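User: quick one, fold this
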Amino acid sequence: MTNADRLPAPLLKRKAVVYVRQSTQAQVQVNLESKRRQYELVDEAKRRGFRDIEVIDDDLGRSASGAVARPGFERLVALLCAGEVGAVLCLDASRLARNGRDWHHLLELCGLVEARVLDLDGVYDPCRPNDRLLLGMKGSISEFELNVLRTRMLDAARAKAQRGELRISVPIGYLWHREVGLGLDPNQRLQEVIRLIFSRFRELGSARQTFMSLRSEQVHFPRPTDRSSLTHFDWTPIRYRNVISVIRNPFYAGAYAYGKSGNKTTIVDGRAHKSYKHPKPFEQWEVLLKGHHQGYIDWEEFERNQQRLAANAYGKAGDVKSGRGGRALLAGLLGCARCGRRLSVAYTGRTPQPVYRCYRFDLPPKCMSFGGSRIDAAIAKEVMRVVEPMAIEAALQAEQMRMDTLNE
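Assistant:
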């Protein structure tokens, strides 16, 4: 140890903090050598002359990019603010922080209490301009390195996905085979329940009606108990989310889709917070390869199914409206001439009667309301008058037109 590396006696009376961190749980379980070398910094602190040594390893499995909370780093900052730390030991700068905000905040605190920063290359005094410059460069390199690694990883994954070779998670009913790639799950029970969902939706034209029909027949749907391989399932009563997820997933139409969702970054308590799996519009998907693998339905039927789902969306501007139950004849079909909002229906009285009203709890007061019995009766009478001469022929023609529209 040279004279330049020797620490002042007042600092040796303080505490030495060994900061241990690995970015992911996989690294904690697999990269044992890196973890061992970090814990060996305790011996380095003893060699430097420290007697009071504390190891902070609360952040094992946590990224230092600044997007996740690090309780261990916060504890280190608290100890520095209390003036209890004489030196901070780390394997390299990337262990302490991979973002400029945390790194420079730490250096500022070390400079205020005259604490040293130690790694395997030497001792740094943040109060000295040259050491501060070198530490700043190490932090910048660490942050840049993370960005380079992330960019390379994402670019490689995207390039592989564009060829349809990236083995992303696939829905129930498919498996990645070692030799042939993506194919149908050989479990016949899985295949049958998925095909049953599509055939029932083809018949009824509504996801909710499909769910109600399958539930009345006590159909069960698999729930994976091993999310990593999707090889073990518990068969539970089918739920609506099972039906809608199967109908909306392009994989069942033989298409390979990548980049269907994105992430959003918000600032929470002065720190970047990322949230994931925000769905993107269909046209913004990064990769869509039709005919990539064997499908349960063809692509044309998938597109028709999406059009049906969109048409069934209740209360969405510009879509076809449908009744939601109840005695009201014109539910979802009337609009307010004053403000343009769609009229809602309420049922009042001892013998419930429909009332149409322009009202929503989250918007300004209602414009109007009126009883629905008389207008329903008048509309029904007029409809019957129009269709009475050729009622049967008109009904058959209307049904044929509806089926032709759905099959286009």
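User: anything notable?
Assistant: The radius of gyration is 32 Å.
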